[in-house]
Specification:
The complex is a heterodimer. Chain A is built from four helices and 32 strands. By secondary structure, chain A is mainly β. Chain A folds into two domains: 122 residues, Rossmann fold, CATH 3.40.50; 262 residues, Neuraminidase, CATH 2.120.10.30. In chain A, the strands form seven sheets. In chain A, strands 1, 3, 4, 5, 6, 7 and 8 form a seven-stranded mixed sheet that branches. A five-stranded antiparallel sheet of chain A has the order 2-31-30-29-28, with no helix packed on it. In chain A, strand 21 and strand 22 form a beta hairpin. Chain B has a domain of 108 residues: OmpA-like domain (60s Ribosomal Protein L30, Chain: A, 2-Layer Sandwich), CATH 3.30.1330. Chain B has four helices and five strands. In chain B, helix 3 links the parallel strand 3 and strand 4. The chains are: A mainly beta, B alpha+beta. At the A-B interface, strand 1, helix 1, strand 11, strand 14 and strand 15 of A face helix 1, strand 1, helix 3 and strand 4 of B.
């Protein structure tokens, strides 16, 4: 039996002290033709304040890889595998079936769930998870992770979080804020607010801290904030730009862009010793560094060729090599977790879109058809990319599957939302 | 599923505190801890956690800018992806240069801005290029470098909202803030 550990105790304490800030909602904008039909039957047993089956169904739908049956087409209401008649579910063309039931415990709830392969007529999963009353959504995301992994073979990323920046109000009354929410936009929590711009949140590899840029001192400066305690420390405040922090895979270093030498250059700071190593040296803008998953190189944006293009800096040789040659604007590169694909912002005929480049054959594929995309950030399982875009005159977050076949948006009820950063796995 | 012990968070808090206490070896202004609890008030109207802030904005130039004699026009505009001073704004900069030469105690911050197109951190670089272009112009006009600071806001502080060319033209600017 599993017990769901509170992976962010601090969040829950903050939530009790203050009402959650406005959550983001999800609107599916594009579904995949290849999505797998799956039935998620409403869970039986103890009535719960959250609809576990609906949360699981929504998670699977958002991935673009599943096409959950609508509730009205569910042909029966089994809550355990014993009650399942496989031919019923073949009749409605469902490849898989999720059933479950809940019971009350001293500490909260115990949720049992099972996954069935309808055509193979076999049970693929059977597990129980214990959660406290305020962790029911987390429990549901855990079930989604398990179901997703059992069917696709890829670890689910539904229990992860996103960080993002909001801006509200005009001109002098403009207010910037940094938030963290569940990957589906729920449980949003404001962790910093300021009258001056906040930029470029970046998760530490352990998911405990965010590095970001804040202009609160009158100029850009880089901060590291512990999420559980809200404690934070300013780590750079050089003259000029202090921008684009990103963590090394081992969490010991921050790469960043500093213009204290006259123009933005890539630096690496050792967090423990606060010593700096300058990587680039030329008259161009060098910024937006990001580490390769193996930690041996960084990708960064440079306009040394005239317009912004992506380059790889090898920490071993100290050499930079240009990676992108398609089009005259490619920036803000981010590696897939396997290091084989580079996601970026590419300017094409329609505007600025999310694109990916296969690093084996250097082929570039445009994933979105929007005009003003920014800030791509890859889910820790590599299946989805979250990015910022525009809807009317509002900044919103969008998510696109890594193959471009499915997408959804996370609009906010108020103000601009931008600069999303997808967390690492939290558990 | 593994437990995520609370002790781990504490360990991180301690290590951050140690970092804060270390002397800087990189020439940075060493950070002090602030906002130790949710709702703590930092500098510049900044609030960590969920608290409601009544703090005032920092870095506001209102007030100082009302001194007599400072040229009225304090914003100049740039072409797309360019940092060259357009000829029609040379007279504006010449007036500021004259004022600064005659008032050696006056200080300006050149605030560089970009339009929204392209990525944010790259646009920080573009805004800085524009502000540096104005800085060089003022320097050639004899203004002391000690009177001039440069800050780039990139696309973070648009003068006009919207996706039109008109809005973009108003946002590609350098503000000369006294």
């Amino acid at each position: 039996m599993k017990r769901l550990a509170p992976f962010m105790l601090g969040w829950l304490m903050l939530l009790f002290g203050n009402p959650a800030s406005a959550d983001l909602t999800i609107e599916i904008t594009k579904g995949s033709d290849e999505a797998i039909p799956i039935a998620v039957v409403p869970f039986g047993g103890q009535q719960l304040p959250e609809d576990i089956a609906q949360i699981v169904s929504d998670d699977l739908a958002h991935s673009g890889q599943f096409d959950p049956l609508s509730r009205s087409t569910l042909i029966a209401s089994p809550t355990t595998s014993d009650e399942v008649r496989y031919r019923d579910w073949r009749a409605v063309d469902s490849n898989y079936l999720v059933v479950g039931q809940a019971s009350q415990t001293d500490q909260g709830y115990r949720i049992q769930f099972e996954l069935m392969d309808i055509y193979g007529e076999r049970r693929m999963l059977g597990e129980a998870v214990n959660v406290s009353a305020n962790q029911l959504r987390s429990g549901a995301h855990y079930i989604s992770d398990k179901v997703y992994e059992a069917i696709t073979g890829i670890r689910g990323a539904f229990s992860t979080r996103i960080a993002y920046v909001t801006a509200q109000g005009a001109a002098d009354s403009r207010r910037f804020a940094l938030h963290v929410a569940d990957a589906d936009g729920h449980n949003s929590q404001q962790i910093l607010s300021s009258r001056e711009p906040i930029m470029s949140p970046a998760w530490s590899p352990d998911g405990d801290k965010l590095a970001y840029v804040s202009f609160e001192s009158g100029n850009s400066a880089i901060y590291i904030q512990n999420l559980a305690t809200s404690q934070r420390v300013q780590v750079t405040s050089f003259p000029g730009i202090n921008g684009a922090p990103t963590w090394s895979p081992d969490g010991r270093k921050l790469a960043m862009s500093l213009s204290k030498d006259g123009q933005p250059e890539i630096y690496v700071m050792d967090i423990g010793s606060r010593s700096f190593q300058r990587l680039t040296r030329n008259d161009s803008i060098d910024t937006e560094p990001s580490w390769a998953p193996d930690g041996d190189s960084l990708v960064f944006t440079s306009d040394r060729s005239g317009g912004p293009q992506l380059y790889r800096y090898s920490l071993g040789s100290g050499e930079s090599q240009r990676l992108t040659f398609t089009g005259n604007y490619n920036s803000r590169g981010r590696y897939s977790p396997d290091g084989e694909t580079l996601f970026m912002i590419h300017r094409g005929n329609s505007g600025f879109s999310v694109a990916k480049q296969n690093l084996d054959n250097d082929r570039l594929t445009i994933l979105t058809d929007s005009q003003w995309d920014e800030s791509p950030s890859v889910a820790p399982n590599g299946s989805m990319v979250i990015f910022a875009t525009q809807q009317g005159n509002n900044g919103v977050l969008g998510v696109v599957s890594a193959d471009g076949n499915a997408s959804y948006r996370l609009p906010s009820a108020e103000g601009d939302v931008r600069e999303p950063a997808w967390s690492p796995f939290m558990n | 599923m593994k437990f995520k012990p609370y002790a781990k968070s504490l360990a991180v808090a301690v290590s951050l505190a140690v970092m804060a206490g270390c002397s800087s070896s990189g020439g940075t202004q060493d950070g002090s801890m602030d906002g130790t609890t949710a709702g703590g008030q930092g500098q510049g109207g900044v609030t960590t956690g969920q608290g409601v802030s009544g703090g005032q904005a920092s870095g506001s130039q209102v007030g100082a800018g009302q001194r007599a004699g400072i040229p009225d026009v304090r914003t100049i505009y740039f072409d797309y992806d360019k940092d060259t001073i357009r000829p029609e704004f040379e007279s504006v900069l010449n007036e500021h240069a004259e004022y600064l030469r005659n008032h050696s105690n006056a200080q300006v911050v050149l605030q560089g801005h970009a339009d929204e197109r392209g990525t944010r951190e790259y646009n920080l670089g573009l805004g800085e290029r524009r502000a540096q272009s104005v800085e060089r112009y003022l320097s050639v006009q004899g203004v002391s470098s000690s009177q001039v600071d440069v800050v780039s806001y990139g696309e973070e502080r648009p003068a006009v909202q919207g996706h039109s060319e008109q809005a973009y033209a108003k946002n590609r600017r350098v503000v000369i803030a006294y």
